[in-house]
Amino acid sequence: MQHKARIALTAIGILGLSMAAQAQDGEQYITLASTTSTEASGLFDSIIPKFTGKTGIEVRVVAVGTGQAFEIARRGDADSLLVHDTVGEEAFVAEGYGTERADVMYNDFVIIGPDGDPAGIADADTIAEALQLIAEAQAPFASRGDDSGTNRAELRLWEAAGVEADGEWYRELGSGMGPTLNTAAGMDAYVMSDRATWVAFENPQNLELLFEGDEALFNQYGSLVISEERHPHLKHDLAGQWHQWLLSEEGQQAIGDFTVNGQQLFFPNAE
Amino acid sequence: MPSDSGAFVTALNLILGLDPDLLNIVALSLQVSLTAVALATLIGLPLGAALALWRFPGHGVLVVALNALMGLPPVVAGLCVYLLLSRAGPLGELGLLFTPTAMVVAQLVLVLPIIAALARQQVEELHQEYREQLTSLGLSRLRMIPTLLWDARLGLVTVVLAGFGRASAEVGAVMIVGGNIDGVTRVMTTAIVLETSKGDLPLALGLGIVLLGLVALVNAGAYLVGETSRRKLG
Predict the structure, then answer these.
(1) In chain A, what are the domain boundaries?
(2) At the fourth CATH level, which superfamily is domain A109-217?
(3) Chain A residues lying within 8 Å of B86, measured CB to CB
(4) Which of A6, A125, A183, B3 has its CA 20 to 30 A from that of B124?
(5) What is the mean pLDDT of residues A109-122?
(6) How many percent of chain B have pLDDT more than 90?
């Protein structure tokens, strides 16, 4: 019995050691808190190897909603932040958590809906009109409802359209972009998505892109430098290199080169 | 969409192709869950036995609490461990958030109550059966613990397997404390969530089939060990 106990303890020891070893290789890394849209579209798989190849710095992406990404960064759990909520990003800097914010790239939001388009939004001239048509038809609309960048943008659009998004037709799902699209497909609902996630999404069922192109649907992504004063333990030097690379000609080129099914999903626009 | 049959083909391709990314994910899943279950076993079995043998004020409260914790939602366990290990939290200095170690801690929190609570029940039944013999041997309660655990070992294997089932199946806790980082903290369940969110349902279901196969393998191993020792006992 003692013999067996010793074998068990040795096995645990080996597991523990191998785990410690795993934690040590790739010493040069930063943790990046970012949004689900950048991860799920495959952008990071395309651009991060280029950055790592040049600098030797590994970038570990924690992809969550923008609200959660801010919270992770506020608590000092991420070295860098790449999100899409300019209002929130500016507040983050104003509160002293960030020292710098820069435009990196943009794409746009699109309205997806069932192929029959029961609310008839495909002919709308503006996003405000499209949303009003959905509300008038009381057609099911699936909202992220998770305080993500997309969710915040959607709520601002309803407000701008002068429509109170409330009632049985307006369904707050409280989940990420992909799960929301899955659910919308299941209940033939309208849904607002960032273009990148939509194009890369593989389970559209009856859903189609019905409305796009209004300037109000512009979706800006920004990179933030986190305050060294506030969180001295973070890898500010490495994170700074990542931030600079994103804004550099090389980084901007890498973003522009990323395509899914031949379609460019993010448009670099650093100044 | 032919996703239902596609999943089995995908699962088969994943296994036969020995995709290195998949192997990494499988290895990490096993590493995290087995470590968590091993630690929970080391702590939980003696703890359960002690609760079965000693009576003290608050004993009942502790037993009920332990039983209730078996139903702890993984996402709540993950959130607690996240707040503990976050830089702003009490153990933030260790820098363990978003590492496999953090995932082990979170799964330990989930599995420990299961193993301790079920072990307590098994040992208590055994103790009632053998109380007189054990007392006549003059064993102290502390000395009874290893004896009773050893005698209950066949039943305790199932207890440990229940713990392993919980650890390998949960996604809420490891998602929060691990962050689902590609190549670092991505395990089977978080990979399944990610592929589902991408809408790649055949791949997600394929990964699910692989995970189920792995859990079946571990259970088959435990079954064989149990059968062998049962035969030895006659």
Answers:
(1) 26-106+218-268, 109-217
(2) Periplasmic binding protein-like II (3.40.190.10)
(3) 75-77
(4) A6
(5) 96
(6) 68
Asked if B10 has any chain A CB less than 8 Å from its own CB, the reply is no
A26-106+218-268 classified as CATH 3.90.1150.10? no
Task: Determine whether the interchain pair B197/A11 forms a contact, defined as Cβ–Cβ distance below 8 Å.
Answer: no
Closest CA to A142 of A152, A153, A132, A154: A154
Chain A residues contacting B, CB < 8 Å?
1, 8, 11-12, 15-16, 18-19, 22-23, 31, 36, 39-40, 45, 60-64, 74-77, 176-179, 181-182, 200-205, 231, 233
What is the per-residue pLDDT for A14?
A: 56
Output the CA–CA distances (angstroms, integers) from residue A88 to A31, A70, A222, A271, B199, in the order listed: 20, 8, 10, 20, 29
| CA distance to B141, B163, B165, per residue, from B159 (Å) | 22, 6, 10
* Residue of A68, A75, A199 best to disrupt the B interface, most CBs of B under 10 A: A75
Is there a common fold for A26-106+218-268 and A109-217?
A: yes
Give the gap in angstroms from C-alpha B15 to the nearest C-alpha of chain A.
Answer: 22
Q: Report ipTM for this prediction.
A: 0.81
Give the C-alpha separation, A197 to A268, whole Å: 17
Task: Say what the pLDDT of residue B139 is.
Answer: 84
Instruction: Mention every residue, 6+ apart, whose C-beta is less than 8 A from residue A255.
Output: A43, A47, A104, A105, A246, A266, A267, A268
- For the stretch A190-241, pLDDT in tens is 999 999 999 999 999 999 999 999 999 999 999 999 999 999 999 999 999 9
Where in chain B are the domains?
3-233
A78/chain B closest Cα distance in angstroms: 9
